[in-house]
Amino acid sequence: MNPTTVLWVYVALLVAGGLAGFLKSGSKASLLASTSFAAALVLCAVGVISQPRVADMLLAALLVFFLLRLAKSKKFMPGGLMAVFTLAALALRHLRF
């Protein structure tokens, strides 16, 4: 799996998570944040932002956010799951198969 494909899969998961948060609890912040980060990652995936480190920095920021959310709530869902997905995306973008 190439790094661009990893980004596309992660973007889909990120938007799905934001949409789920909005539909379940009416969280506009969740929907806005997920779509904003997803849009930035899409720009990285299509090459508008050509620096590969930008996508990694965005993923790292999301990882910190989700880990802080997990630590604060002490509930695996949704912060822990998204932290796992984010860590996997970071790892898969740098593994060479």
Topology overview:
Layout: H1 3-25, H2 28-46, H3 52-73, H4 76-94
Task: Give keywords.
mainly alpha, 4 helices, 86% helix
Give structural notes.
The chain contains four helices and no strands. The radius of gyration is 13 Å and the shape is globular. It is mainly alpha-helical and 97 residues long. The mean pLDDT is 94.
Give a quick precis of the structure.
The chain is an all-alpha fold. Helices cover 86% and strands 0% of the residues. The chain is globular, with a radius of gyration of 13 Å.
Helix content: over 70%
Helix/strand/pairing category: mainly alpha
What's the helix count? 4
Shape assignment: globular
Give the topology string: H per helix, E per strand. Answer: HHHH
Please report the distance between the alpha carbons of the first and last residues.
8 Å
Strand content: under 5%
- Uncertain segments of ≥5 residues (pLDDT<50)? none
